[in-house]
Amino acid sequence: MNGIDFEAMKKVDVRTVNRSTLKDINDVVVDIALPKEERLRSFIEQIGNPYCYKCGDLVVKVSFAENTSATLEDRLEHYLSTM
Amino acid sequence: MDKLNTDTKYRASIYLRLSKEDGDKSESDSIGNQRDLIHHFLKDKPDIEVVSERIDDGYSGVNFDRPAVKKMIEDAENGVINCIVVKDLSRFGRNFVEVGKYIDQVFPALSIRVISINENFDSINGRSQSDNILLPFLSLINDAYLRDISIKVRSQLEIKRKKGDFIGSFAVYGYFKHPENRHKLVIDDYAADIVRDIFKWKIEGQSQQRIADKLNELDILSPMEYKKFCGMEYQTSFQTNAKAKWSAVAIGRILKNEFYVGTLVQGKRTTPNHKVKKTVTKPSDEWIRIENNHEPIITNEEFAIVNELLNSDTRVAPHKTEVYTFSGLLYCADCGNQLVRSSVCRNGKTYFYYMCGKNRITKKCTSHRISDTAITDGILVALRQHIANIVEMERILKYIDTLPYKSTNVKKLNVQIISKEDEVKRYEHLKTALFENLSDSILDKNEYLRLKYVYDEKQQSAELAITNLKQEIDKLIKNRTEETLWIEKFKLYQNIDTIDRKIAVNLINKITVYDDKRLEISFKYQYNFDLALSFIQSMEKEISPRNKVKEAV
Fold first, then answer.
1. DSSP state of B517
2. Domain range for A35
3. Of B124, B400, B437, B442, which one's alpha carbon is 20 to 30 angstroms from that of B36?
């Protein structure tokens, strides 16, 4: 999996990207029994570009927060603590 | 002064003033001492008859905004008095300009005799050369004294603020002043719980008004009433109702108050100088902010989420108590306006969709129409994939096991019910006693009816509160089971299967909608596929260098 240009993937323009070139996230199946590293690797392999993909007939672009050190684990824990 | 000399009898007002603020602390300045001194002085002056005594106890001489001095000047203007006696000029006032105006212009024009005992000044004698020089000087010194004290006090307060000492008269709702050190704050468990509820309800999507209504329905004392209830002498001129209620503004103020995350912010307002009482708000970069100053009630994350919500424009739909899941998170990519929710009925089924707010009102942007299901689906699938593939699930599952079973809220409400039941009983007793007073003719019928009406009202509001509290407990228990179910399901499937408002605001920063069914989801957490992947690879290199070639795809 070396040589994947994630920077270029991030820069894909959601307005102009050709739908037919994108993979559908609904087709991605990862076994949750696998270790975390394997799951991540498998996800990236299947989705192609984790920053821009299709979800049904929707084109979805994803961006992560840059001004925080909070991870998804942190956010989930906070959510659980306020239940 | 000629006219005064012919007047044989003087109708005098003696004026006494004592201030807590401007340093008149010596015993010689006590009201009693001032009075004694003046009466002693007047003993051998039969031509002066004291007709009134005007006392301003606890007023600074910085201005003439004092009730008794105002009355005295009014009397002088109306001719009720024609003589004023004070112990020294600083009693009359410490403001150089104002005192000079009265002594040199107003009183001579009204033919008022002014006697200031300590300065040996009596206007009937006219002004000697030395008076002309000395009096303004004395007045100036009186004024300078104020300025000096003001500077001392101001700098002292500034030091306290910078040190993190709380210097307000009353602790912020949710805290008590420390019993031994009034500059420190400790959490007031009861009020802190209410503050936590307020933040929680806001995150769940309730409006400030709805939260205020809810607290009023539960008959929870508003911060002002709570202060009174705790025995604090709190007074305000803003109160309009007999009993202060929670308001949307009060809720908003609590939600925006950094105090609750442990930050002490003081010195927001000031007065231009000690003579001007009008307060001005300082620019926020001059406020004194001290982080981690006291124990927080709200976490930084929660505070941040709530304040982002407050900045976005959301509205609870009619007949709903909470906003929609994505309210305030959906924006049009082209004009930046928020998307608005609408519905359409087709073949007896209602479909919800979102469209650009600007398009709907002015048609100056394209529709950006997108169905509610498409958005919800897009976000749910993305989150599910992230939870499945980038989260360290072990950590979350372990964390779940550490969560305490929360029965505290129910307990808290039960305690409130008991106290309300006591209240109901107390009014019942009071009414019985009232009736006895009527029978014994201690009260007449009108008084009886008036008091009975008051007690009836209070009893009814306590009864209503009990009903509401019981409903709240039912709701809590129901939510508890829902929450427990949610957690059980999460543990089982190691994922979520729906998105509610709380998840949305905890995990999503913004959803930008483009035309042609395209959208961008910006999450509230950081992640970098690039780094994560290279981290894995470097780990593998270390563990088994021979696998390197095989693994590289």
1. T
2. 6-82
3. B124
